[in-house]
Design goal:
With 126 residues, this protein is α+β, with helices and mostly antiparallel strands. The chain is built from four helices and nine strands. The chain has a six-stranded antiparallel β-sheet. The chain has a three-stranded antiparallel β-sheet with strand order 4-6-7.
Length: 126
Amino acid sequence: MSSPQNLKYSKDHEWLLLDGDTATVGITEFAQDELGDVVYVEVEAVGKTLSAGDSFGSIDSVKTVSTLFLPVSGTITEVNTALESDPALINTAPYGEGWIIKMKVDNPADVDGLMDAAAYDEMISA
């Protein structure tokens, strides 16, 4: 399993793609594999401002319920509504159609504090 090079990663297995001051956030392929079949995704409301490390929702799978943690501080601007009718997109396309939220990042430089793909792959293989 090799993580996409263009993304940044948190220790909590979220990925982030930054475009200006807007970030798309989802969970990694490793995380969705550990969770098993995703059956429901609950996300905090659009417009909510959170700090890095705060919970922004949860994922229910056939195995467990897992909390989602924001990788950097910012305001949620969009939720992937496709997950309401098809939460399994997280399993089938974790780095594409299975994204979870978009957010306005308070400080884009904070993204530099996240892991790159090599560091994340090393963490999950340890």
